[in-house]
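Subject: design request, 285 residues
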């Protein structure tokens, strides 16, 4: 880890998920539990063994990160687990032209990074993403994310079992799950920051996810991106713009990169430092 070895990373003893959970995540979780059909969707995942199916497909198709296979990436995983207090899950890399990462497995979690993501990010940025996924595990998100990612197939199964009634309930559940998913991402971003302990790699990651073109990375400007965040916030002054934002995000699993950066910067200025202060850790030392 060429970048992170230059500074000390602090393990966070006895870290609890509620210490970094985004309040919108907590509210969305409570709202989700009240949506009809969620219990049936979860039951179908267990009944049909979808979790086991996903795991077997992953083992057959992807390459596992170990001390001998992609050893530097494995050290990043180990460090992130130590800092966040998470049991080390299996980590895999899959060939995929789209930069992405995800965590599956409620009872046996595993994390997958796409080859495009690995190629896109430097080591600190990759640590941020790995810790982001560990944040989903720490916060207990994984079961609901499995439901969200497979909701269409699950509701079809529920519909067959309930003579179509489950399918009628499904659309409300879909929107509730996606709303929760977007808020859960904000919590996971906080976990990523707690592990990398520097806001700059987080912002660079968001810039790369939004900008995408590898040949342009050396021309990216953090201050210009922050100005774009200000412009995004200014748009909220219009009721119509706020309505458009809702419509644009309705079917998404992730918030826009600019929104994620805005939320993480706000926490970095307050709750993030408070969490370290409570443990007597001086981040500026």
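Subject: RE: design request

Done. Sequence follows.
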């Amino acid at each position: 880890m060429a970048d992170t070895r230059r500074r000390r990373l602090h393990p966070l003893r006895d870290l609890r998920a509620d210490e970094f959970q985004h309040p919108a995540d907590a509210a969305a979780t409570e709202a989700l539990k009240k949506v009809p059909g969620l219990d049936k969707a979860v039951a179908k995942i267990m009944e049909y063994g979808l979790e086991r199916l996903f795991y077997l497909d992953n083992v057959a198709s992807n390459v596992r990160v170990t001390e001998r296979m992609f050893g530097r990436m494995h050290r990043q995983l180990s460090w992130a687990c130590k800092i966040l207090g998470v049991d080390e899950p299996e980590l895999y890399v899959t060939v995929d032209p789209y930069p992405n990462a995800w965590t599956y497995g409620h009872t046996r979690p595993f994390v997958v990074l796409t080859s495009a993501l690995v190629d896109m990010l430097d080591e600190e940025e990759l640590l941020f993403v790995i810790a982001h996924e560990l944040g989903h595990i720490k916060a207990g998100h994984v079961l609901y994310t499995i439901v969200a990612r497979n909701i269409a197939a699950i509701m079809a199964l529920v519909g067959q079992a309930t003579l179509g009634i489950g399918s009628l309930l499904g659309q409300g559940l879909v929107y509730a799950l996606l709303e929760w998913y977007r808020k859960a991402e904000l919590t996971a971003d906080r976990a990523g920051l707690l592990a990398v302990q520097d806001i700059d790699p987080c912002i660079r990651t968001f810039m790369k996810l939004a900008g995408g073109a590898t040949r342009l990375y050396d021309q990216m400007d953090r201050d210009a991106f922050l100005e774009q965040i200000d412009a995004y916030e200014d748009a909220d002054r219009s009721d119509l713009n706020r309505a458009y934002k809702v419509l644009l995000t309705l079917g998404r699993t992730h918030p826009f990169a600019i929104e994620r950066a805005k939320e993480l910067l706000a926490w970095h200025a307050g709750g993030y430092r408070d969490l370290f202060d409570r443990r007597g850790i001086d981040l500026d030392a």
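The beta strands are 63-65, 90-94, 101-104, 110-114.
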